[in-house]
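Final report, Chapter 2: Outcomes

The project's central promise was a pipeline that accepts a single protein chain and returns its three-dimensional structure in a standardized token representation, suitable for archiving and comparison. That pipeline is now operational. To close this chapter, we reproduce one record exactly as it appears in the project archive, with the input sequence first and the structure output second.
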Amino acid sequence: ALRIRTEEVLPVFESLGDVRHAAITKSQIADILVMRGELDEALRIRTEEELPVYESLRDVHSIAVTKGKIADILERRGELDEALRIRTEEVLPVYESLRDVHSIAVTKSQIADILVMRGELDEALRIRAEEVLPVFGRLRDLDGLAHLRFSIAQLRLQKGIKRQEDLQAILDDLGKSFSISHKLSRVDGIAVVGNLLGQLLIKLNQHDAARIVLGQAQAAYGKVGQPDEAARIGQLLKQLSEE
């Protein structure tokens, strides 16, 4: 894939003087390099070869997208402060000026991801629950809602269960994420969310509900090619039936 883009696609756009599609191809090359773990070269391409083109074209949307991808690489390299600064000061304001509500919400969610890595759980939870979740709800972004509800539940668990209300909120978030995953036929979501929800139901001694949820999660793990996880849940279900 890298050879084709580098040797067969990019030279054509360059020979035609098509700077936009040349920049897009370089972005795709950088994507492959990121997947290969070649972060330094991917970062160089984005900052030195891709971004300047969009700046010269005054394509503010593509500039924001590219800076977001630069922030992605910085996160992978552990440069969290700079990644946070870029998302907060350079990416988010652009989407706000364009009134791109979905990209605003996604960027805020990415900001929350960085805050989680920095250990700032309270602010990350506030952003996801108060600023991102309502937008995904209004936009009816079901896939986004399923992922967001699950991530909110994980954050609540990380913070610890101090009150009954905390536990109920976690169950509510996991239940809604699980339901949406079923609605979308997202077997990966059914597997991961169902696994966590089922284990939580066991701790609450709701064994009948746990069996149903874990059974669905086990089947889903089998469909996504994770037999070890399916077998582990099978052992858990066996223990439940013996109790």
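Archive annotation: The first helix runs from residue 2 to 16.
This record, like all others produced under the grant, will remain available to the consortium after the project formally closes.
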